[in-house]
Amino acid sequence: MRVSPFLSSVRRSWPLFFALIALGVTSSFATDEKEQKIQAKLIWGTDEPKPANPKIKPVDPKLKEKFSGIFKWKNYFEVEEKHFALAPEALKKVQMSTKCDIEVRNEGHGMFEVRFLGEGKSLKKVRQVIPPGELLVIAGDDKNANAWFVVLNLE
């Protein structure tokens, strides 16, 4: 049986056709991503009572319950809360306090890199996916047996 030249060329081009389709599909996933709305909180963990500063408030009960099951402190106070949006492949520096900044990079597909800066020095770096409803937590020691936490979640 003789195959026409047209059908022969179509058969030879199937792999190319599927490769182009695959490239189109994967590139459309990459370009369809939208900016992510992020909530960041600076938390202080301590056994001390609430400070007099009216801006500092106890963390919400759900977060306290999560932290109490993992960490040793009796009290967790929210020092600052920030909301911001971050486009894919973008980097944003956010001041959480006079001594604390975070740099957040949206690497796309739910992956984020977060760098914690204390007094301008890079202290911690975390790179992980933040699934909706989950938290990314960076923690470190503070003076007087206290701790600090930066908690990020997607809004």
Overall 3D shape: globular
Instruction: Work out the oligomeric state of the chains in this entry.
Output: single chain
* Series of H and E elements: HEEHEEEEEEE
Please give the alpha-carbon distance between the first and last residues: 63 Å
Portion in beta strands: over 45%
Mean pLDDT rating: 84
- Helicity, as a percent range: 10-25%
**Number of extended strands:** 9
Structure classification: alpha+beta
Count of helix runs: 2
Using only CA atoms, what is the Rg?
A: 24 Å
Largest sheet: 5 strands, antiparallel
Structural overview:
- The chain is an alpha+beta fold and 155 residues long.
- The chain folds into 2 domains: 1-32; 36-154, no CATH class.
- It contains 2 helices and 9 strands; from the N terminus they run H-E-E-H-E-E-E-E-E-E-E.
- The chain has helices at residues 5-32, 61-68; strands at 36-46, 57-58, 75-86, 91-95, 100-108, 111-118, 121-129, 136-141, 147-154.
- Strands 2-3-1-9-8 form a 5-stranded antiparallel sheet, with helices on one face. A 4-stranded antiparallel sheet has the order 4-5-6-7, with no helix packed on it.
- A hairpin with a 5-residue loop joins strand 8 (136-141) and strand 9.
- The N and C termini lie far apart (63 Å).
- Mean pLDDT is 84; it is low at 6-11 and 13-31.
Structural topology:
Layout: H1 5-32, E1 36-46, E2 57-58, H2 61-68, E3 75-86, E4 91-95, E5 100-108, E6 111-118, E7 121-129, E8 136-141, E9 147-154
Antiparallel strand pairs: 1-3, 1-9, 2-3, 4-5, 5-6, 6-7, 8-9
